[in-house]
Write a structure and sequence with these properties.
This protein is α/β, with parallel strands linked by helices and 219 residues long. The protein has helices spanning 44-47, 103-106, 139-148, 169-176; strands at residues 18-19, 38-42, 52-56, 64-66, 87-94, 100-101, 116-120, 136-137, 152-155, 180-183, 193-198, 209-211, 215-218. The relative contact order is 0.23. The structure holds (2S)-2-amino-4-(2-aminophenyl)-4-oxobutanoic acid and zinc ion (2 copies). Residues 66, 159-160, 171, 181, 183 line the site of one zinc ion. It comes from Caldalkalibacillus horti.
Amino acid sequence: MSNGSHSTSQSNFEQGWIDISQPLSNKLAHWPGDTSFSYTFATKEQTGSVNVGRMTTSLHSGTHVDAPFHFLNEGAKIHELDLNLYIGPCRLIDIGDSEFINADALSSHDLNGVTRLLIRTKLPNNPNSFPDSIPHFTKDGAAYLGEKGIRLVGLDCPSVDALDSKELEGHHALHQNGVHILENVMLDQLSLGDYLLIALPLAIQDGDGSPVRAVVKPL
Ligand SMILES: Nc1ccccc1C(=O)C[C@H](N)C(=O)O
Ligand SMILES: [Zn+2]
Ligand SMILES: [Zn+2]
């Protein structure tokens, strides 16, 4: 197959998509105590025909979505979630050095008509090192997003709660307000404003979460 008629020809190719996913490498940081991401493969010499990979991973490795089942036994599982949540227009805002993602930190931003929101916090993109502490959602921050009609929130942190939280108040409050959760997106290089977002979970039957390939394209 000649390249001219295939992948290197850009003429009929949609351009401008930007990857905001953490690379799934064996160096990827993982939640303390959880299963790290590991990819290995059997070689052509071993199989007699092909290189063939395998991976082991927590479903919360790298850039991923949480299903409500992650924090609620009766919550929806990955295969039950509406894919329309994860494809469509979104807005990127930056909440500066705020420790909390609360109504106060959110209220200075125009969220009218926004259904998907990406929030850049002070946490730097560093996919290979797990942070010591992270900004996290308050109940009133979750309620504020619900009131604005936000259905998906994505942020550059491994959780929407404090790292030592057992109650997971932020997860529950977002869920109660109809807001779905996307974690560990890489936002440092992006300009603020409006994008198209695609961050589809894999079709994992009964999954409590799923890694996603998250991409944005400026609108
Ligand atoms: N993997 C874990 C193992 C143990 C305890 C929490 C987690 C989490 O993943 C929590 C985080 N809020 C998450 O949704 O990704
Ligand atoms: Zn998660
Ligand atoms: Zn989570």
